[in-house]
Amino acid sequence: MHTLVAFVRSLIFIMLQAIATILFGVIAMLILPLPYKFRYKVITLWSKFVILLAKYICGIEYQVRGLENLLQTPAILLCNHQSAWETLFLQTILPYQCWVVKKELLSVPFFGWGLWALEPIAIDRKKSSSLRQLVEQGKAKLKAGRWVVLFPEGSRVAPGKLGKFSKSGALLAKESQMPIIPMAHNAGNCWPRNAFIKKAGIIRVNIGPAIYPNTLTTDEIHQRTESWIKEKLPL
């Protein structure tokens, strides 16, 4: 019975999410000529709407610890990756930010259009130049007053586990001399990767204090960030 209820709720959620995505995808194309900050605020409404859908239809709520650790100035946020939920959530709590994403996501109809309007750092991970592109564009975004969000695992990982961390975020922090804000969560428990059914429950999010590069080496920045996320990863 519980499985049937979860299936029906998930079906309703996905249908409404699809309608909202199509609507905002079209809107994103129409407002492309308008200023970035206006586009950002409009597209963020989509993220907030989907988060609310997940709460009221699927019973997915969340608790956050460490919101006070978010700085008033741009920083680099490194987060473990379990589902689509955290990408939506980060859009709702951060000021102007850009994601580091796979280039092919920009080609996804409607969703990709909205993503394009947010001016992400879109990289081709098959190219050897992708790391340098990420660092150079990341520095430019930070200088322009935007946060940079990276998922160092590169792809979604099952709850309770961490994938191999890329050093790209640490390298960006070192070269830009901008702080890293680490974040750990267990969104995959409620919004599993590649799964149709969403599960009711509480997603727990931990946001850590800033890690300042200063005289640290890239390896030291990387180790401190990965260790914090691993230690604070909710189960």
UniProtKB/TrEMBL annotation:
One of its GO terms (molecular function) is 1-acylglycerol-3-phosphate O-acyltransferase activity. One of its GO terms (biological process) is phosphatidic acid biosynthetic process. Residues 75-188 form the Phospholipid/glycerol acyltransferase domain. The chain crosses the membrane at residues 6-32. Pathway: Lipid metabolism. The keyword Acyltransferase applies. Keywords: Acyltransferase, Membrane, Transferase, Transmembrane, Transmembrane helix. This is 2-acyl-glycerophospho-ethanolamine acyltransferase. It comes from Candidatus Berkiella cookevillensis.
